[in-house]
């Protein structure tokens, strides 16, 4: 799936329409979507603008822990839905948004983010430290949460607003 906000953002945009080029079963399907199709509200660039990596991280954590709602959460839901479609976990954007919302609201996205943070710290551990740790097993829920976390991060970092 290749996406391009017609407003110039290189993500699925809440500012207006987004052009989608989707490769499925060997065919490329091109179409446009807008936030209203999914009962999401358009916003302005200022509404979703973030800043430094630290501010971006705080925004993601805030969305995942429920303290940040509105355009930031909607942008994450919309972009995560595309990721869930690509990952084969959702058949369309509506289903993807519903699943992303469930993953975030249930706390699974925050749990996965914390697991990823812990795993990144493990790279600094010694081999014997790693051998003493339990093996990380991925369940279907874990994979879905992982997709949501990764694409939420990509979406929020992209809104540093490099326009094309």
Compact summary:
52% of the residues lie in helices and 11% in strands.
In words, what does this structure look like?
The chain is mainly α and 164 residues long. It has one domain (39-158). Helices cover 52% and strands 11% of the residues. It is built from seven helices and three strands. It has helices at residues 45-48, 53-65, 71-86, 93-105, 108-122, 127-131, 140-158; strands at residues 2-5, 18-24, 27-33. The chain has a three-stranded antiparallel beta sheet with strand order 1-2-3, with no helix packed on it. Strand 2 and strand 3 form a beta hairpin. Helix 2 crosses helix 7 (140-158), helix 3 crosses helix 4 and helix 5 crosses helix 7. The longest helix has 19 residues, at 140-158. The protein starts with a strand and ends in a 6-residue tail after the last helix. Mean pLDDT is 82; it is low at 156-164.
């Amino acid at each position: 799936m290749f996406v391009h906000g017609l407003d110039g953002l290189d993500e699925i945009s809440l500012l207006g329409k987004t052009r989608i080029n989707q490769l499925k079963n060997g065919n490329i399907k091109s179409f446009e979507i807008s936030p209203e199709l999914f009962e999401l509200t358009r916003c302005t660039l200022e509404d979703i603008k973030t800043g430094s990596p630290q501010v971006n991280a705080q925004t993601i954590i805030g969305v995942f822990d429920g303290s940040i709602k509105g355009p930031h959460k909607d942008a994450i839901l919309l972009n995560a839905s595309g990721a869930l479609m690509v990952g084969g976990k959702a058949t369309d954007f509506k289903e993807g948004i519903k699943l992303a919302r469930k993953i975030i609201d249930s706390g699974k996205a925050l749990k996965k983010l914390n697991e990823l943070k812990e795993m990144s710290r493990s790279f600094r551990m010694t081999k014997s430290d790693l051998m003493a740790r339990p093996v990380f097993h991925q369940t279907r829920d874990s994979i879905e949460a992982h997709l949501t976390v990764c694409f939420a991060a990509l979406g929020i970092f992209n809104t540093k607003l490099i326009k094309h």
